[in-house]
Structures are given as structure tokens and as C-alpha cells.
Amino acid sequence: MRGGLTPTSDDIIELKDYFPEADIAKLETIENFHKKIQNILTSEMTDEVKKLEALISATNDDVKKMEKEQRKLGIPTHVSKKFLDETVSLRNRITFLKQQNEGYESSKILKAETKEAKTRLENARAEQLEIVETMINQEMIRMNDFIYNGTQYAPKIHFSNTRKGTPAYSFGCQWNTGTGENYKNMIIYDLSILKITELPVLIHDSLVFKNVADLPIDKIMQLYLQSQKQIFISFDKQEAYTDFTAETLAKTKVIFLYDNGGELFGWSWKNKNKLNM
């Protein structure tokens, strides 16, 4: 191809020397079509370049105007690398502080919610303790009135929250703090808990009865008999009490222990020659 990449008419004619059967007319038609396409594309590209050059020129004019306005305001038209680095650093610092502030705000909200939750928990605990306290005290009043025919004060229990959230309590009768009264109050409390809870069984040792007067013992025996649950007691010297107490013990006893052969194992643990066997 002479003169460039595009084939000329002479190139096409010479092609016939190598390919005698080639359709030269058709090849010239195709080549003419290629030239038309090339002219069109060249024209369009020229127009596009002119448009871009005009846009660049207008943009440069705008930049120059803005720089001129900046100079009038005393603002430098060229920014140094140091300034850019400092700007980036400050922006990063601002972003960090914003994140810290958001974390602090979240922490304050969390602390407030935690405090509120603790307050609700303390209030709920106090309400439940008050309910339990009322139930126990009402039952103890009922049993104490049964024992004394309503003539004496019943023991009371009072729950209170400590600073650590652990319930503390006070129990008894402030008008009477004698030993017999304390043991009687404990029996009434135990029977009340047995009555109002799911506790299945109650056990009282003989020690709790020794300082309680005879009449309360009779009524306590009646309360034992009224219970629908299992109650075990050990009792010493039943003959020292009223006939009703003695008869109740005789009717309900499971095992009767006594000295000289009536011990649980047939002999006493305090006997030296038995222990040395």
C-alpha cells in the first residue's frame, strides 16, 4: 500500500496480478465505503475535540476568576502540602473526637439505664418482701390468737434492704423478749411457714418446749394436730405437762425412749463399759 495504511486504486489493480479471479469492482466499492466511514468519524472526532477545548478554556477562565477573587480576599490561590497534611490531620482528629463523644453519650445512656434497672429491681424486691412479710405476719397473728385467745401480742417479722441489696430482717415481739417467749415465737413462725409455703415437713427438738408455759404447749399441740403436713417432735417429761399434752403425745408417738434398756440402741452412749466394747 503506497503512502500509508489505506489501499489506493493502484494497489487494488496490482492485486489482480496475484489474484486474477478477484472482483476488483466489489473491492473498490468496499474501499469507498471505508473511506466514507473514516471521513465521518474524523469529522465527529474533530467536532468533539473542539467542544472539549472550548470547555477546557471556559473552565480555565472560571478558575482564573476564582483565583482572582481569592486574591482579593487575601486567600492564597495555591495550597501547600503542609497545609493539606494539617487539614487531613485535623479532620481525622475531629472524626476521632466525634466517635469518642458518641461513645461517651452511649456510656451515659447505659449508666442511666443500669441505674434505672437497679432501682426497679430494688423496688420489686421491696414489694415482694412486703408481700411475704404480710403473709407471714397474718398467719402468725392467727396462730398466736389461737394460743392466747387474742390476749397477747403476736411476734412480727420485718424485712428491709441493705445497701448491698441483701435482705435483712428483724423478728420477735418488742414487748416481751424472755426466753420462753422467744421459743414460742419460733414455733409459731415455723408453723406459719409450714402452712403458707410448700415446705413438706417440720421438726422440733425437745429444747424448744422446755421454757414454754403449759397452756401454750397445749395449744401448740392442737396446732400440730391441725396441720395436714408431716411434723416430727421430740419431747421430754411429758408427765410434767397437762393431761391433754400427755394424751396427745401418747396417741401420736412413733418411738418411746427411756433409761435402763429403753435407749434407741438398747444401751446409753454415756455408759463407759459400752463405749469401750
Keywords:
277 residues; Rossmann fold; two-stranded antiparallel sheet
Protein model, in words:
The chain is mainly alpha-helical. It has 2 domains: 9-72; 118-275, Rossmann fold. Helix content is 62%, strand content 7%. It has 7 helices and 4 strands. It has helices at residues 9-18, 24-72, 81-148, 179-196, 214-226, 243-252, 272-275, and strands spanning 156-161, 167-172, 201-204, 230-233. The chain has a two-stranded antiparallel sheet with strand order 1-2. Strands 3-4 form a two-stranded parallel ribbon. β1 and β2 form a beta hairpin. α3 packs across α5. The termini are far apart. The relative contact order is 0.04.
Topology of helices and strands:
Blueprint: H1 9-18, H2 24-72, H3 81-148, E1 156-161, E2 167-172, H4 179-196, E3 201-204, H5 214-226, E4 230-233, H6 243-252, H7 272-275
Parallel strand pairs: 3-4
Antiparallel strand pairs: 1-2
Helix/sheet category: mainly alpha
Regions with pLDDT < 50 over 5+ consecutive residues? none
| Shape estimate | elongated
C-alpha termini separation: 135 Å
